[in-house]
Write a structure and sequence with these properties.
heterodimer; A: 363 residues; alpha/beta; seven-stranded mixed β-sheet; six-stranded mixed β-sheet; 11 helices; 35% helix; globular; B: 612 residues; five-stranded parallel β-sheet; five-stranded mixed β-sheet; 26 helices
Chain lengths: 363, 612
């Protein structure tokens, strides 16, 4: 599994993204969202890039936002030029797991299982985590001999406007010597609230009655959402991940702050242990999770909640694919910070997933 | 990997938490305080709902009902738990407690949404039956002494239980179990593995039908109540040594099930087969969404079930709750090798304690001055604390809520709400290098700092969290709830600090006439998120019982109220309550005016001891 990282602008200047196997991809998949970086994969396609078919997904709850509409328009203009088979955008529902799954399954695998080699490019950047898990599971099921390349683009910054606003208010209050400084979380946030906790479809896990439950939590920047998972899952033990790296130092600092806040808030309520994991290297993150699962699977019902960067979600997927006893948990937030989630495009990384079944193996 | 928290241990934080699932039977018995826990009600041979919020001790209670814990409890001096099991089974109310957890994701799996509803329901009930069956066999295997059940009897039970399925439908699982366990030597473990394999088969089916390679057919067995669960309980009862002991299925976290899954439990209860099996379902009442069976019948109490509310102990029998928390604190301090009484370990603020002493003396003098009305103790009890708050207001000082008794009241009937701030107090000191001091006592200023923040979180953070759970059309309700809390707390504060107030420590209210739709929704929201506890009282006019709303005492530090106050309740008209939802100042002003001019149509005061 290769793991390549580049500065986004340098990458475009060097020619951009080529098809997986040099010729043309069989399938190009992306998700249009409200984030600016949503259009990054389309922006960085090489001039010669072609795909036999293109699938563009959008969550209908965000479809009418100006930010999303603008990204959709950009996608539509760009993608038409790289394929002869672009039937337009397909919308599912972020709130309804079954609808989201069905739409993805019908769109990604209209012919069911295809038992010969395929090359697929999947832009994982702005899929919500649950849809990404579904997309991965569907692609790996439908194209067992498929080579899937995952593309991920990190933003320059998260919550730029909120951070500026918070700093402005704080500076003004400091000048006026008013002690009532508002909480940073009112301005700097990615998602808020809680609608539902559920297992990602395809990852129900296997729970044995009477075994204690163990939650492996890979936190990102969302403190409250992580706590909500713990509160609702009520595991008998939490293993809380501590990222050792990030695509940018500033993101790493924010992750560590969030992790510390989660740990602080869980104290007194919940037995917690910590472990280190990588947010930049799928293989490393996968190995960490694999080792934890193997160590604990005999005596626990294991749940994994990847709340971290998408690299951790992919690593979770790969471990859960091998371990059907593991349940992958997803927390549906109340709302996303759709107008100030992220801005810019900083780094691009791509990773190749080897075929689930190699051409030398028998089915 | 660093261990951050564990169960109470010598030299550690006495208030450390460990999930009941992780505790050994010995630890459960060590930590559990059976007195005032409701065990006596729950162990009766009736279907029972056990209501309690998170952290109120439901899981601990259910674990305490498992056979090995009962054996430890029933062993006499010098006996082993193995001997204790005989004592329990020959006691006046023996039972076989078999526990399953319905945690998030155990039964309410997303894949069921992809299936037709009737099929999903059949599979769900089968999944629940299999889980209970696996637990039955594992419980018999692990929680009884070796040799208690003869090998022949074990094998016979397993044959009968597996005979409830057609051999072909469980053939694959038989093979799986055979690979793991020798059924001729360990039949109970073998059967548990068999049912686990059947559960795995369902999970595999759920996955496969989401990714259909070709037509996916479920090839496993299915089971229902009458053709599996009931006969299984009957077979267990006929085991030698368990003669006619009913099986109690202890279903934890039943609020985590979906509505149609809760209907399955209700349907089991509606069968009233208590001579064979009883369902003991623990849940948060507001999250248990239905009392209907699958056939649409409404489950009724007391015919179909009894119920026990863990928090009722506080609102109904406060002294018992205090005794229970004291016993828990004492046990935990003991396990951490801290030889202190809880009252000494968590002392009140000495200055305010002395001031309270003065107020008591003043109240005694006042009692004589006003002609010795009623009993002196009652008079002092009623007025001394109020006078303390009045003095604090006069001198512009804050109440210090330190002290074991205050902390018990502030926990409002939820044991975790006592343990958690205590944990944070110890942790606060340990993190500042004062652990040695923390092993002696927690200074009042540390207690005050922690409980004030704990209270502030409840009103600031938690309300914000709730807002995020709501759809925007419900935001107005939350704003009204926040306003109502300010109105009521303002009113109660004014009463408490008014030297002329006759019933200064009022802390609850009732509504005299029909609630407006908005007020009803706001009160429901407040009840659901525990800003109010609700009891009922019999109306003087007869005609049934009315709701009585008590403010959560965790709010006291922020609103400067007395957590020990419980005397009487204010009766509000619905129009005044509507005003309290909108305008605290106007509401409080009207109240003061009503008191001055005694406008009974706006307010009236009732004594608070007639609730049920």
């Amino acid at each position: 599994m290769r793991n390549n990282k580049f500065d986004f602008r340098d990458f475009i200047a060097a020619g951009g993204l080529c098809p997986v196997d040099g010729g043309q991809d069989d399938l190009f998949v992306a998700c249009a969202s409200f984030e600016e970086r949503s259009r990054a994969s389309a922006l960085c396609l090489s001039k010669s890039y072609r795909a036999r078919r293109v699938f563009l997904y959008v969550n209908r709850e965000f479809q009418d936002l100006p930010e999303t509409r603008s990204n959709i328009e950009f996608f539509q203009a760009t993608l038409k030029s790289i394929t002869d088979d672009f039937s337009g955008i397909v919308s599912g529902s972020w709130e309804r797991a079954d609808e989201q799954f069905r739409v993805l399954r019908d769109g990604l695998a209209p012919a069911g299982v295809v038992d010969h080699s395929k090359s697929i490019t999947l832009d994982i950047t702005t899929f919500n985590r649950e849809a990404l898990l579904s997309a991965l599971a569907i692609l790996r099921w439908a194209y067992p001999r498929g080579r899937i390349r995952l593309v991920h683009v990190t933003p320059e910054e998260y919550n730029r406007r909120g951070r500026q606003e918070f700093e402005r208010i704080r500076a003004n209050l400091e000048k006026s010597q008013d002690m009532q400084v508002p909480r940073q979380s009112q301005y700097v946030w990615l998602s808020r609230g809680f609608r539902k906790l559920r297992n990602a479809i395809g990852f129900p896990g296997e729970q044995k009655p009477l075994l204690p439950s163990l939650l492996i939590l890979l936190p990102g920047f969302e403190v409250e959402r992580a706590l909500t998972i713990v509160e609702n899952q009520e595991p008998s033990r939490v293993l809380l991940g501590r990222s050792v790296d990030h695509m940018q130092d500033v993101f790493h600092r924010r992750h560590l702050e969030s992790k510390a806040a989660i740990l602080q808030l869980l104290r007194g309520r919940q037995p917690v242990e910590e472990f280190d994991f990588s947010c930049t290297d799928i293989r490393s993150c996968e190995a960490t999770l694999e080792s934890i699962v193997c160590r604990h699977r005999e005596g626990n019902n294991i749940f994994v909640a990847p709340m971290c960067a998408k690299i951790g979600v992919v690593a979770t997927y790969l471990v859960a694919e091998r371990h059907p006893e593991v349940q992958v948990t997803y927390c549906v937030p109340g709302e996303y910070n759709v107008h100030d989630y992220s801005s810019g495009m900083s780094m691009i990384a791509y990773f190749d997933l080897p075929p689930r079944i190699s051409d030398h193996a028998t089915t | 990997m660093t261990l951050s928290l564990a169960s109470p241990r010598p030299g550690g934080n006495p208030f450390e938490v460990e999930h009941p699932e992780r505790l050994s039977p010995e630890e459960i018995v060590d930590l559990f305080v059976a007195e005032y826990s409701g065990v006596e009600v729950i162990k009766k041979r009736k279907h029972t709902f056990i209501w309690g919020t998170r952290g109120s001790g439901k899981s601990m209670l259910l674990r305490y009902l498992e056979p090995r814990c009962k054996a430890i409890v029933h062993k006499r001096e010098g006996q082993t738990w193995e001997e204790g099991i005989h004592n329990f089974l020959t006691s006046d109310q023996p039972f076989l407690g078999v526990r399953i957890a319905c945690k998030e994701g155990y039964f309410n799996k997303s894949e069921l949404l992809l299936m037709e509803k009737p099929v999903a329901l059949i599979l769900t009930e089968h999944m629940m039956n299999l889980s209970l069956a696996a637990s039955v066999f594992r419980t018999l295997d692990e929680q009884f002494p070796k040799g208690f059940l003869q090998l022949d009897a074990q094998s016979m039970l397993v044959r009968k239980a597996t005979g409830l399925f057609s051999p072909a439908s469980i053939a694959g699982s038989v093979e799986s179990a055979n690979k793991l366990v020798d059924g001729s030597k360990e039949p109970l473990r073998w059967a548990s593995e068999l049912f686990n394999a059947e559960l795995r088969k369902i999970s595999a089916y759920l996955r496969d039908q989401a990714f259909p390679h070709r037509q996916v057919i479920y090839e496993g067995a299915t089971s229902g109540y009458h053709d599996f669960l009931l006969p299984l309980a009957g077979y267990v009862q006929h085991l030698p040594g368990l003669d006619k002991v009913p099986v109690y299925f202890l279903i934890d976290d039943a609020d985590r099930l979906r509505t149609d899954q809760q209907q399955i439990i209700n349907t089991w209860m509606a069968n009233r087969d208590q001579q064979y099996l009883c369902i003991k379902a623990a849940a948060q009442i507001h999250e248990y969404k239905t009392f209907h069976t699958r056939d649409g019948w409404l489950l009724e109490t007391p015919h179909d079930y009894t119920e026990h509310s863990i928090e009722e102990l506080y609102s109904g029998h406060r002294d018992d709750y205090t005794k229970k928390v004291r016993a828990i604190a004492k046990k935990r301090l003991g396990l951490a090798r801290i030889d202190k009484e809880p009252e000494d370990y968590l002392p009140p603020d000495p200055e305010q304690d002395a001031l309270l002493g003065e107020m008591k003396k003043a109240a005694e003098a006042e009692w004589e001055k006003v002609g010795c009305p009623g009993r002196r103790e009652d008079f002092v009890h009623r007025y001394a604390v109020a006078r303390l708050f009045q003095e604090l207001r006069r001198t512009k000082k804050r109440r210090n809520y330190a002290g074991f008794a205050n902390l018990v009241h502030l926990s409002s009937g939820v044991v975790r709400s006592f343990l958690e701030p205590c944990y944070l107090m110890y942790d606060n000191m340990a993190s500042r290098g004062r652990e040695a001091e923390a092993r002696s006592y927690i200074p009042p200023n540390v207690q005050q700092h922690v409980v004030f923040n704990y209270s502030e979180d409840f009103i600031l953070d938690d309300l914000e969290k709730i807002r995020k759970d709501l759809t925007p059309d419900k935001f107005t309700l939350l704003d009204c709830l926040e306003t109502l809390l300010r109105s009521l707390s303002g009113l109660f504060y004014e009463r408490l600090t008014d030297p002329a107030s006759r019933e200064a420590r009022v802390f609850s209210f009732t509504v005299r006439d029909k609630l407006s739709e908005k007020a009803r929704d706001v009160l429901q929201l407040g009840e659901r998120y525990r800003y109010f506890q609700v009891r009922t009282y019999s109306t003087k006019e007869g005609g049934g019982r009315e709701k009585w709303y008590i403010l959560n005492r965790r709010l006291c530090p922020v609103y400067k109220l007395d957590p020990t106050g419980f005397e009487g309740r204010i009766s509000l008209t619905s129009s005044l309550l509507d005003m309290a939802l909108e305008d605290p100042q106007k509401f409080i002003r009207l109240r003061l005016k009503a008191q001055d001019t005694a406008q009974p149509e706006l307010f009236s005061l009732a004594q608070g001891d007639d609730g049920a």
